Amino acid sequence: MSVLQRLWTSSSKDKQKSDKQLIPDVEDPADGQPYNPYTEILILQHHKDIVRLILPIDDFRCATAGDDSKVVIWDIQDGCSLHVLSGHDHPITCMIIHGEIILTASSDKTIRVWDIFNGQCLHILKEHCSSVKSLVSIPESTLFVSGGRDICLWNENGQLLKTLQRTDTEEDICIMISINHNRIVTAADKQLVVFSVTPVDDDEDKDVNSEMSLIKSLPPHREVIHSLIKVSKSCFASGSIDGMIVLWTAHNLLPAKYFNTITNYQGADKLYPYSIQCMFCLQEQYLFAAIGSGFGIFDVSASKDGLICRKISAHFSKILNIGMTRDGSYMLTSSEDGSIRLWGKPPSSDPEINEKLNNSNIPMEKFTRLSSEELKRLNGENCIEPELLGEFIAHSGAVQTFVDYDKEGIVSCGADGLVIVWKNSELQKVKRNRMVAGILSNHDGIV
Amino acid sequence: MFGEYAQVASYFGQNEAVEGDGNMSYPPSYLLPTFNAANPWSNEHNSKHGTHGDFIIIAEFSEIEGPKPLLTIPSDGGHGFDHNAFSVKIMAVDHQTSTTGFSISEDTQVILTDSGEFEVCAFVHHFALYDHEARGFVRPFCMAYVTKEERKLVNFYEEFSSQFRKVAQFFKYGNRMCFVKDLERHSKDLEYTKGVLIGRFNKPMPEQGCTEEAIYKDLQHIQSSLAEIRDILVILRPLLNDKRLESRFHTLESRAWRESNKKDKLDSLSLQEQWFTERGDQPASKYGSFNDAPDNPLHLFEKIHAYSPKLVEMKKKKKFDRTLRSLHELCSWGAKEGMKKMRLIYEHFKREAMILELEREETSLLDPPTSVLSCGQCITHNFLSGLSLRPADCPALSFPADLLQRWSSIDTLEGSFGSFKSVVSESSLTSAQSNDSFMLASEGFCDDDTLFSQPSDVEKSSPSVVRTDSNLSGSSSMTESDTMPSVYESCSNSPIKTPDKTMNDDITLDNVETSSLEQTSDIPEDNSVITTESEITITTCNSESQNTSESDSKLTDSSVDSIPDRGQMINSSVDSIPDTGQMINGVYIDPPSSDKNILRQYSEPDDTTDTTPSSEGTRLTRKPRGGIYTVGDLLFNLRYDSPGIGVLQVLNKYNNIQHIIYSILTGRLVLVVGQAKHEMEVIKLVTALSLFLPNHRRKHHAVVEWSSKPFRLTDLPRIKIAGVCRTEKRSIESVVKKYCSIIDVDKKVIIAPTYQGTLIHSIISKKKCFKIDADFIAFTHCWFMEIAAKAFIFYHSFCLGSTNIISHHSSVACHKQQYCNSVKGFITKLGIHEGDSPIIEYFAEIIKLLQIDQTSLPIDEGFKVSPVTLSYQSCQMFRC
């Protein structure tokens, strides 16, 4: 028994070794992280379980929700918790903002409607008969759609307008996005389905007449879809855990391009090392995708495969979220290894170039420190390589997601139940100077 | 004890026959000569330590024995000091005005300096208590604070004066309540006797041998006694109007009842203190214990036993053979409270004059509280010292109330200025200012915030109103502003005085107005408010005063009569402060708060645990205000766990400790890690290092001496220094390790960012110069003051100045660079090494955060989170 065990473990170790030879080591940030501007944190404690969702409300407020079935609204300037929305009794799976209300979907089969300003629960929608997994609001209307086993159309007063039953063999809908022409793309397991909502305008009882219907089922991915984003008005992209990214046209719902096609996608021990966890798109052209524990950037408009950047091992384990901050000055990746990493280019030694690029309004130029012309010339052979500028370590578990608040900083949440606001301490110092000067100038003691 | 010679003689005369039987019988000890010890302060050792041997002595001028000491605080106070001789000295002041009848005598206060025999200085407070068994009903007492340091008495005269005045007030009030009760009882006795005598008169019984004449004489005597008692009661009864004191006594008594019902075996409520006389050895000393006879002086309020009158022996002469009643029997609960207060006074003033002065000076640095920089629990600097942040009184701004607790003398010193300011700012300017100061407030809040609309607001502003009144006069070496002078006090301090008063208690109109305002607001229906003006005007037309026609009694009588005038007076005084007067009336009419002292309500909100309505005692205890000690105070009572104890030992034992001190001074968490067997060493290190912790207030728990729980990230905003037990499991979260400096006691290593400045070396290099911790701690605090001075400049010139105008660069990296450069430039100009600039920055940052924290709007839900600065600076390992 023990001999067998030893044999087995040794063989697996050898296997790991051979894997490691292929994969470059994860780098460490430079000593002292001189280019990491996020040097002050606020630790917001309230959640008792994994925090999975952050919803920005305005420039200073955000709502966080997670497995403790509570939503907390924070003022991220000073870390006050403004409201605690409690009512769900199962983990919250999705949270969106819809006008002046917050909608939360939960595994307790309900959707709750909350007032943004006072945290009151306005409605409880109980018509779903299974856990609700995703929500999407229809732009330029008062309607929203929820998905789980079924897909339902609601108006903002919580009236159920339409339910579409799905067959039992189909998996629950996990992700939904809205694209042009009031269409909704839903992802369930490997399957993408497009629905259409027709709100009736200028009618007395328009909501009653609003309709929702299935338009098309798209050709399925090889594996589970984990990421679905809108790229531009004309196209959207979906990524699955086999590493495949498919770009679809919004108009006729056909696959336009395939990126990152990998044949042996399952990897050792079926860990899916190339899985697409998260994507975002910059300037409707550059598609950033978290691929396993690394990331890649694809130029959607390029004629060839469009890969302009590939970092194979950016983190020690899977990246859960990827995003930009400071109008493209930095890219951030958060990972299961508990860290958020800051990517970009250090300021160059030539101050003129710095000045020029700092004044640029094009995020991609800022990020890569290349001009648009130079960017166009990039292809698979000459890639850009963002440098690791800093590492934010404070969470003691996986960093689920983060939201960029520009000058106010970055809000991140993690499996340790903490919400952390990362701020630039110099900016905060200046801000405090102003506040103190303001306080004092309002007192008569200062002459 | 001059009066005792005759007694000694008579004692031996009486006992001549008895002496023959050979038994060695001694006269009572009060007749024995006292052992005269050498003057305790004559030897060199003691005179060096002036604090050694301060004590309070209470003496009385006994009508039997002459001046005699009663008790000292502490009980062994002035050990070896000739209390008898000293009592003679301090009682040798004839402060009694010669009176022909009953009168209310005034207290006097005087500083006695004895350069010859005793070489001491004493603050002496004379007062008189009433005893219906005593000659002229009066028993003169005095209490004296005896010290070697004249400077203490002179510099703190006002405090002594006001504190002793309060003690006397306790004594006198309790005494008056007892006295009135006794008199009432006595008059009942007389009435009863009268009835009996009249019965006899009507049917004379010859066998008794009483002549009609004798009975008639007795009746006449009774009649005059009754008249006299009536007169006295007329004078005294109106003075028993201090509801606050009464309720306090009442609480004590009801508590005593509860206690006595609970456990009747233990007689813990005896009033008896230690006495110089041997009465304590006699079983009679049980007198004054609570479970005693129903006519016990302790039963001030309970009326369970109906009084049965006794027959009065009319031929009674003054009996000088029986001992007079003790102070506690005379004053009941008043004595208990007075003694308590006096002990607090002693505890406070027994410290060296130097320390008291240091404390007074530094206490002024506590205001405004938002800009206090403290290091190692000691106040270091106030960045806005002396600035009035009065609009801070608006409801949005909450101050920790205990920070506002200040000494009365400071109130007086700053009073006239501050009060003027407060009048201006509060009555007329506040509305404007409050709007201004709500820069953070939402619009709606601004609009809703009407002046004084909220109760909290009123409560805050009213004390300053009171202070205004008392200080505008510019008088008041007697600072009564902090505790409301009770009406009696203001009466006895009235301008009608005998010229030989040594006390400078020229309470002027304003003070009395204050009290009248207080009284009206406290007990609106109580009409016995006396104001000086009405007294002066009415004395002439007073008709009721009889044989006891002393100016003082007129004065009090008049006060009873002159209700209309008084009403006017009150009105006028209210009118003189139009806004605030109304406000006070409006608010303090409500009864529950009426018993309380307004100021105290405000300044000591955490006294609620004490069942006494207001415990003035706390004013004198040395609890740190706002969690901060003054340097003098800290040095005076260094304890084993005071911050900095053992610092010399640590500095000598560990090398490279400057890196750790640097971490502390820049707000970086410091963890002292060791196995359980090294617990003592870890605790020692933590205690020693906490000396260097800035913004360290006692209540903030920034220091954890020893913790076996793993240290987590969420502890980071709160804790600055902690001792951590190394366990087999992970004792520090790996995340935290990045942001802390570590002293590993087991491995003898320090892991910390490298210190490259010079400031810390300048203090460490002095470690050999000091032998004991206290000296080094004092030196360190001076050193802190130097750094704080630099930080002060940085705060005012850089942070508040215009140097920090930074363009809104889109690039955060550029911004950072620019800010750091301008800081560096400024700090270099201050003559600070670049490596020390984070210390200066951190000090300024502390103050900024404090101010923002305490001036922002209170939010119902949630609380602010203090930011944590993360330093990505790489750490190095040093051997230590």
Automatic annotation (TrEMBL), chain A:
Segments of this protein annotated with the region Disordered: 1-32
Regions of compositional bias (Basic and acidic residues) in chain numbering: 12-22
Keywords: Repeat, WD repeat
Pfam families in the cross-refs: Beta-prop_WDR41
WD repeat locations: 85-124, 312-343
InterPro entries: WD40/YVTN_repeat-like_dom_sf, WD40_PAC1, WD40_repeat_CS, WD40_repeat_dom_sf, WD40_rpt, WDR41
PROSITE patterns: WD_REPEATS_1, WD_REPEATS_2, WD_REPEATS_REGION
Keyword Mitochondrion belongs to the record: no
Organism: Patella caerulea
Name of the featured protein: WD repeat-containing protein 41
GO cellular component term of the entry, any: lysosomal membrane
Any GO BP: regulation of autophagy
Keyword Lyase in record: no
From TrEMBL, chain B:
Domain called UDENN FLCN/SMCR8-type: residue spans: 46-848
Predominant place of localization: cytoplasm
A GO CC annotation given for this chain: guanyl-nucleotide exchange factor complex
Keyword Nucleus listed: no
Ranges in coiled-coil conformation: none
GO biological process, one term: autophagy
Keyword Cytoplasm: yes
UniProt keyword terms in alphabetical order: Autophagy, Cytoplasm, Guanine-nucleotide releasing factor
Subcellular location: Cytoplasm
Superkingdom as given in the UniProt entry: Eukaryota
Annotated Polar residues bias: 451-496, 546-561
First and last residue of the signal peptide: none
GO molecular function terms noted in the UniProt entry: GTPase activator activity; guanyl-nucleotide exchange factor activity
Short name of one Pfam family: Folliculin
Region (Disordered): 451-506, 538-623
PANTHER family documented for this protein: GUANINE NUCLEOTIDE EXCHANGE PROTEIN SMCR8, SMITH-MAGENIS SYNDROME REGION GENE 8 PROTEIN
Protein family per UniProt: Belongs to the SMCR8 family.
Protein name: UDENN FLCN/SMCR8-type domain-containing protein
